[in-house]
């Protein structure tokens, strides 16, 4: 596999263990505590990013904060309480000002589930969240739903490994969850590379769930693309990750790169473009995703290049390749 040139400097927090707790609910709580900590604390990163996420405010189902108080109330498993909207439940708002002024992530533990496997996630690209009580989540005028009372996280009582990647300036934020040898969930937030002229406050958000969350079929071949962005005057852009494709059969099985190039015996690593069919925004050239490339679908999750010693510079996850900063990513 050739090593693609990186545009950015990346900071990594790799192989964060979420051990089995003996119950699915307990392990889900441990997973969310680890996710939140990885987004807001530089502890454990190989080098601290210059701009981490910061807690805007939160609720542990007993006490709801006010916007801007900066208090993280989700610091132990008992602080994470699931319930439907209208009943007491937990939530947290995390701000990433390096992506855009007031770019915020809302994780709200809505959706009753015996095992706590459901979650609701929104992002606000620039307005920021306000309000919120112990029984109702905060809202934003530009809120974009990413997951609505849906599954997120592996949802099994097994050990998991989390990997966090942030650009050194904090303008790109990524989380990857592995369990049982495969990718299980991911979060990707950031500013696109070469954004389309006229795209004010350009940013993208993706919350992927399941072992196919980073496959060509999920990111390209779907009636409802799950990468999200906004354009002034238009509610929400649904965005495809674009890829070169050819051959017979279905798009999902053929819009992918060859395993090995017969001319030079190298593996592919091609840029991932952004395109949308949203009315009022249609474009096949919205921009690209920084330092995320299409790889061969024949490579297993966790495949490194070069795969030796401390030279591991990239790692394959699903059909994509991402920087690894010389660390062997464990897939639990």
Task: Give a structural overview.
By secondary structure, this protein is mostly beta strands. The chain has one domain (10-323). It contains 3 helices and 17 strands. The strands form 3 sheets. The protein has a 7-stranded antiparallel beta sheet with strand order 11-12-13-14-17-16-15, with no helix packed on it. The protein has a 5-stranded antiparallel beta sheet with strand order 1-7-8-9-10, covered by helices on one side. Strands 2-3-4-5-6 form a 5-stranded antiparallel beta sheet, with no helix packed on it. The longest helix is centred in the N-terminal third of the chain and has 17 residues, at 24-40. It is globular. The model has no long low-confidence stretch (mean pLDDT 89).
Content of β-strand: 35-45%
Strand sequence of the main sheet, in spatial order?
11-12-13-14-17-16-15
List low-pLDDT spans.
Answer: none
Briefly note the structural class of the backbone.
mainly beta
Task: Quote the average pLDDT.
Answer: 89
* Helical segment count: 3
Percent of residues in helices comes to: under 10%
User: In one word, what is the shape?
Assistant: globular
Q: How many DSSP-defined strands?
A: 17
Q: From the alpha-carbon coordinates, what is the Rg to the nearest angstrom?
A: 19 Å
Q: Give the H and E element order.
A: EHEEEEEEEEEHEEHEEEEE
Largest sheet: 7 strands, antiparallel
N-to-C CA distance: 24 Å
Count of discrete domains: 1
Quick summary:
Helices cover 8% and strands 35% of the residues. It is built from 3 helices and 17 strands.
């Amino acid at each position: 596999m050739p090593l693609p040139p990186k545009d950015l400097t990346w900071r990594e927090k790799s192989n964060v263990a979420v051990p089995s707790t003996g119950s699915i609910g307990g392990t889900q709580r441990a997973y969310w505590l680890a996710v939140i900590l990885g987004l807001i604390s530089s502890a454990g990163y190989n080098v601290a990013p210059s701009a981490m996420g910061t807690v805007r405010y939160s609720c542990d189902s007993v006490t709801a904060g006010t916007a801007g108080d900066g208090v993280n109330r989700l610091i132990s498993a008992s602080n994470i309480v699931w319930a439907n909207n209208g009943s007491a439940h937990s939530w947290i708002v995390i701000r990433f000002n390096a992506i855009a002024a007031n770019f915020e992530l809302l994780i709200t533990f809505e959706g009753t589930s015996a095992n706590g496997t459901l979650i609701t996630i929104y992002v606000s690209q620039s307005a920021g969240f306000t309000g919120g009580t112990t029984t109702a989540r905060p809202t934003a005028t530009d809120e974009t739903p990413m997951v609505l009372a849906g599954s997120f996280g592996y949802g099994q009582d097994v050990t998991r490994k989390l990997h966090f990647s942030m650009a050194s300036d904090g303008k790109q934020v990524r989380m990857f969850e592995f369990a049982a040898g495969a990718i299980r969930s991911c979060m990707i937030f950031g500013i696109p590379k070469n954004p389309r002229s006229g795209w004010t406050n350009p940013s993208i958000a993706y919350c992927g769930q399941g072992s196919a969350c980073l496959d060509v079929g999920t990111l390209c071949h779907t009636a409802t693309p799950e990468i999200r962005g906004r354009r002034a005057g238009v509610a929400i852009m649904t965005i495809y990750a674009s890829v070169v494709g050819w051959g017979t059969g279905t798009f999902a099985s053929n819009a992918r790169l060859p395993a090995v190039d017969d001319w030079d015996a190298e593996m592919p690593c091609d840029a991932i473009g952004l395109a949308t069919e949203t009315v009022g925004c249609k474009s096949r050239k919205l921009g690209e995703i920084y330092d995320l490339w299409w790889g061969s679908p024949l490579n297993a999750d966790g495949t490194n290049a070069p795969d030796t010693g401390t030279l591991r510079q990239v790692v394959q996850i699903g059909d994509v390749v991402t920087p690894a900063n010389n660390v062997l990513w464990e897939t639990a």
